[in-house]
Each structure stands twice: as C-alpha cells, then as structure tokens.
Specification:
about 200 residues, single chain, 7 helices, alpha/beta, five-stranded parallel beta sheet, elongated
Length: about 200
C-alpha cells in the first residue's frame, strides 16, 4: 500500500471513529432523564436559560435542602437573581447560596467541591443543560469522587439535543460539547480515579 493510500485510510478510520463517537454522545444525552434519588443538596451550574428555574423548582419541592448557584459572576447579586425569578424570595432567603468565582466548568467543580466540604454533604443533584451534563459530571467526580451525583438535565431551545442533526445551532453546540467532553474525560482518566461515568 502506498503512503498516500495508508494516510487516506487512516483519515477515513479516524473520521468514522469521530462520527460514531459524536452520534453516540448525542444519543446518550438525548435519552438522559432526571434522576429520582434523594440527595442532600442541589447545585446549579449557570449558563443557558432554565437552569436556575429548574433548581428553584426542585428546592421548592424539598425546602429542607440547600442549593448553590455556581458561577453567577461578579456582576450578578442576590437581588438581581430574585428579580429574575419572582416569587422565590423565601427560597433565596433561607436556602440558596451563591458562587461568584467560577468562570468555566472546571471552576464550577472547584467552587462546588469547596461548598460541599463546608457543609459535609455526601450527595448532590446536579442541574445543568443536558448537553453539558456529561462533562460536568466528569469534572465534579475529578475533584470529589466520594460524593454521589444525581443528574437533573434541563432542555430549552438549543439545549434540546433531539434537534442536533437538523438544527445548525444545536449541531454546533452538541459538537463543541462533545469535543470538550472527550478532552475532560481523557484528562480525568489520566490524572484521577473518577469511576464509572456512564450516564
């Protein structure tokens, strides 16, 4: 076989591997459903719309728990969040903590781990967009593998992976997240014992 033929076959094999991985990733997140197991607390990783609302809905159903909203940024405060989610002032007063420092998913994991250890929680409901959930679980397990994590994925607009193969914005979002997830997974496998990350 010529060198050109070998390179072509190698590229075709890598392309097929990439496409297969992407399709499997999209299928897995499309089938991901909210967990039903009880947990000590709730964490919301900020980003696309619907995440904080979903967390507040969970908290209202069990106000004995605490909730951390991670990565709100230095420009957002409690008053602004209350105004954006009217009717939840009582929850913000009693049960919600704010994490202003995280700027990405790795930062979310570090911020959440610090909060978890402060309160000695052993289980968490993780609220984030469905496409973002696999990478979030990897990063969280990397820094606190002893804590049980239960996913609570949100779907809104471009966050619905069922549209990924016919909607350009969703395709771009799912594809980018797939690449980030693979990078996070490889790094975590090389540096940490993160256990079984199957969804």
């Amino acid at each position: 076989m010529s060198r050109t033929g070998f390179i072509l076959r190698l590229l075709l094999a890598l392309g097929a591997l990439w496409a297969g991985g992407l399709i499997r990733f999209a299928d897995e997140i499309d089938r991901l459903q909210p967990a039903t197991a009880d947990t000590d607390a709730i964490v919301v990783l900020t980003g696309s719309a619907g995440r904080v609302s979903a967390g507040l809905g969970l908290l209202r159903g069990d106000p004995g728990r605490r909730m951390l909203i991670s990565g709100i940024g230095s420009d957002t405060n409690r008053a602004a969040l209350e105004a954006a989610h009217p009717g939840n002032a009582d929850l913000f007063d009693c049960c919600v903590d704010l994490g202003p420092d995280a700027q990405d998913t790795v930062g979310n994991a570090v911020e959440i781990a610090f909060w978890v250890r402060q309160h000695r929680f052993t289980s968490l409901t993780v609220v984030t967009a469905v496409y973002h959930m696999p990478r979030s679980l990897v990063e969280l397990r990397r820094v606190m593998g002893e804590v049980r994590l239960e996913p609570w994925p949100t779907r809104r607009g471009d966050d619905d992976p069922g549209r990924w193969w016919h909607d350009r914005a969703t395709f771009s979002r799912v594809t980018l997240e797939f690449h980030k997830y693979v990078f996070s997974l490889v790094r975590a496998r090389l540096t940490s014992d993160i256990g079984d990350v199957r969804l």
